[in-house]
């Protein structure tokens, strides 16, 4: 069979060693699983540096690597907004403001927090929508994982999907969240080691940053109207190529509010996939530091994801032709080259054998990390939030671990089918931002109002969620029929903003005519009703200043502001 990437024995040896390590970690982690808290939250025993790296690695999956490199190849530097505006500020807010509530309330999941704050209505809406979102997003990771196996071995895509799914299934079923988290730490280092050579070799080949700028300028001049102007591709602001707005002012507003506030805070502060890693920490201070520690590597990830995409657009003939508007046969899926293939083609053209095997292992690591994160969060929500709460209460602990393992199997099988949906999108980021607009933006609205306003009622919680989600879906439908027509991520930004605003308005109105919870039931869930002593950590006083959550967050914020100014 024809394969996109030509590998040899040394590449396969590296890949086999990596897979053996992954399965081995799963088997070792199994020894630590003695109950449901161990399986779903690693017994709340992990140090901050482990959970911090896992926090980043869980997000460093298919979307981060294939999606960001695809968008980097397509529009260039404005893609960094997904990190410097669309991630780091929200991660710092999660660590400073929201993690004390999550960890201090001793909940096992974000939907469980919703149940204790708002009751069963909002809880059910959140749990079901979250579970559905995880199945769809796991499908993205699995589709791209299967594409790598297809490109490597030439297997039919459906065979590659099944093989990839079985490997992920094995280590989560063995060791639960501990297996996922320890593998994510390993995967973080493997991913960096595999992608950094692409950036360095690519920059060397193109003549450094100035050479890359010259090549992009030449390409834009040769394809006016088809490719974004060079000035838009080489500077992050005002980011019109990303937002789709013709006005620079509207573009900045769209990016800051739509991406930087609604989508970003909606994702990072309420997404249980990420929050679950912090919940596995050994103390409330470690839980707060988890996303803050994660912010430091997060702000540097563009240099190993977006930069290779920009390099692929000028170094790889096939990607350059796609950018110029041509249809090119081939690609990882075999159905034509798309921007999602940028990293694979750059690997093919730049890396020697051996380094190629490491790079392939890194990509496999990334996609497995992403899929494992989705599925480990899914099995917790199904087992704890739906099955234990509404179907089978008061069973012994081992029963719920078994339910979790069955949910893991079911999620893996369903993800094989949702992977085929992901395959219909030439740029995975378009698909993903649409999903976030549906599920995360309204949830963040309910969360943030409910956390700071004690009069938000249980009824308002679920009615606002449903209204916000339907509002975002309406904007998306309007874009499908041509009523709303925005290129780039503009439609996703508008949909998310509509979902957020409608959720807040409806929640406030419904709260005027329904009954709030008694104040004593809101301790640990609402800021004004929770004394500071509720979140106290005796260890904090003995820590040096530079390792405390507050100073760490300030350092990270200054660094990300500098990056925004520099680029």
UniProtKB/TrEMBL annotation:
Key words, A-Z: Membrane, Transmembrane, Transmembrane helix
Membrane-spanning ranges: 12-29, 49-70, 82-103, 123-145, 157-179, 185-203, 249-269, 299-316, 355-378, 398-422, 434-453, 459-484, 491-510, 549-566
PROSITE patterns: NA_SOLUT_SYMP_3
Coiled coil: none
Keyword Cytoplasm attributed: no
Keyword set includes Flavoprotein: no
CDD domains linked: SLC5sbd_u2
Topology of the protein relative to the lipid bilayer: Multi-pass membrane protein
Location, primary (coarse class): membrane
Places the protein is found: Membrane
Family, similarity comment: Belongs to the sodium:solute symporter (SSF) (TC 2.A.21) family.
Stored PANTHER family: SODIUM_GLUCOSE COTRANSPORTER 4, SOLUTE CARRIER FAMILY 5
Protein name, entry field: SSS family solute:Na+ symporter
Species annotation: Brooklawnia cerclae
Organism lineage: Bacteria, Bacillati, Actinomycetota, Actinomycetes, Propionibacteriales
